[in-house]
Amino acid sequence: MGNGNLALFLLYAFLCQLAISSSLSHLCPKDQSHVLLQFKHMLTISPNAPGYRFDITDHLIQSYPKTLSWNKSTDCCSWDGVHCDEMTGQVIELNLPFSKLQGKFHSNSSLFQLSNLKRLDLSYNNISGSYISPKCELSSLIHLDLLDSSFTGLIPDEISRLSKLQVLRIHSDPYGLRFGPHNFTLLLKNLTQLRVLDLSYVSISSTIPLNFSSYLTTLQLWNTQLYGILPGRVFHLSNLESLYLEDNPQLTVKFPTTKWNSSASLMELDLYRVNFIGKIPESFSHLTSLRRLTITSCNLSGSIPKPLWNLTNIETLDLCYNHLEGPISDFFRFGKLWWLSLGKNNFDGWLEVLFFNKSWTQLKRLDFSSNSLTGPIPSNNKSADCCSWDGVKCDEMTGQVIQLDLSHSQLRGEFHSNSSLFKLSNLTRLDLSENDFFGSLISPKFGELSSLTHLDLSYSSFTGLSDTQIYGILPKGVFHLSNLESLDLSGNPQLTVRFPTTKWNSSASLMKLYLSGVNATGRIPESFGHLTLLRRLRIASCNLSGSIPKPLWNLTNIEVLDLGYNHLEGPISDFFRFRKIRSLSLRNNNFNGQLEFLSFNRWTQLGLLDCSVNSLTGPIPSNDCGGDDGVAQTTNPVELDEEEGRDSSMISWQAVLMGYGCGLVIGLSIIYIMLTQYPAWFSRMDVELEHKILTRMKKQKKRQ
């Protein structure tokens, strides 16, 4: 009995200790909770940011505002993105990638008080106009990721003092970030524990020093303005798996002639547009783990060395724009290929052989343009079911092709007016965007596809040169497709659009009209007033002038309206008639009126208003808006999150003033309006960015 009581006592003591230990492990220190809440208020949340974004590995990741879960009434160790030490409760990790954060990161940010922080990830946010602070002295930091977060300016040499760093990613917009003299050398010299280093698009503008961490597995220095000779030691890093040096034309690469120390580990090698003169060395044959090889535009010549054919794990091979030669059939030995690009070389052989090759069972892309191939192109296998082809969707009952998506398919050439596509009379959706139909007119036969509900011919050129884009006059028949719901012709500046002056046949169905960047010189016609179902209208940068025609104010379903970068005029107050408007951009026009009228709550669903660079007058209305979590507000623009804004009926403003003369006429640049119907902040997502995101989503979808 005594032993039983002792056992029960010991069990009770153990459970108590476990409970106490568990409680302690999740007890966030108040000062660190306060620090994180201050950080929360430094940046705002942008629900208008893309819901999905591609990461550096081209995987589609969902974005969501992680900091919404942060509240002073709960333990900060339970907050989304926050990880604490299980013993001490100290915050050791802050993981906020894809969190829809926006705003300015202050040099004296409260985050720098988290002295035990080991991991800081702010990647894929919009912290634009912010500098990397020299006060970043987090000596325990092992992982720092600022990839694609819009930081700018000089990278401070204090980064090189974070001697425990194993992962450093400061991937920026092209040359938005730069190193000072010798700072790159200092960084490589001091950060001896690095495993991953990504400085892509950072302006390094120096040679590559000899000092490298021997632990490196990934080295990414795309487009960094490197010059000089690549140190041979790079190829002898025994743990190296990925080496990306693309787009550094002043960098000279000399491959080792003998076996590399990284031969057993290297899986990805990208040397696009670096300076390499000569032949591919036989030492490449030792790279038995290699899966991806890109040596495009490297001035290579000669034949492929025989030992290279032993690289049986190759999946992606790009040798374009060189002077290589040899029989095309040799490439059949790469049985795992799914991407093969050999354009602009001197390979020879019979075209027929390519089409009867059975070894490329996984091939999805093949480019052998501009080579010395001969013979006719074999006809397609007519017995194949086209409904199973990528980008093609058929009616389940009739088998007729009803949708065709060839966007971003790298199609090149003239789009003929008698194209066989026009025989697909049952098409409801046609997407030919992001291709290169140079010198092509938009055929009147597009207007004969009477079943079309969606037509997308946007951004039909890669280069942006005037002689490589769709040009000519848009056939009026396109506007008379009676079932058309969505029309996108954006990004074709050589395309002239003349709107019908009378009612369109598509008036009763059209809901989305995107024409930004086309040539539509003149006035907006009154016929727009018949588009009663229209919800989204983008006609920015179309060289339009004059006032808005009165019938246009009858479009009561408008939710998104972009008239930016034109020469339009009239009172700003007229736009109050659009009661369902969520996004309104009038930037760079000649609209006039008093700014104070904007303070009245007429737009109950508005998330974005941009009326910068117009002829608006008067003072900017201001209201106060604060949080209720007990944290002192900083001097940066006010923001409200979902919890803090639920009971607020105020409009809060963020504005940038641009004075003219004595300041009586001002431009209102980027106004954010927060109303009770939309509890989180909306921000401007640039049309080009939106287009790119949608394009990549289409591309990803087609791969699946």
UniProtKB/TrEMBL annotation:
Primary residence: membrane
Chain ranges passing through the membrane: 651-675
Cited Pfam families: LRR_1, LRRNT_2
Start and end residues of each Leucine-rich repeat-containing N-terminal plant-type domain: 30-48, 59-85, 380-395
Annotated localization: Cell membrane
Alphabetized InterPro entries for the sequence: Leu-rich_rpt (IPR001611), Leu-rich_rpt_typical-subtyp (IPR003591), LRR_dom_sf (IPR032675), LRR_N_plant-typ (IPR013210), RLP23-like (IPR046956)
Signal peptide start-end: 1-21
Keywords assigned: Cell membrane, Glycoprotein, Leucine-rich repeat, Membrane, Repeat, Signal, Transmembrane, Transmembrane helix
Membrane topology: Single-pass type I membrane protein
GO biological process: defense response to fungus
UniProt keyword annotation of Iron-sulfur present: no
Entry similarity comment: Belongs to the RLP family.
Protein's name in the database: Leucine-rich repeat-containing N-terminal plant-type domain-containing protein
Organism, as annotated: Solanum commersonii
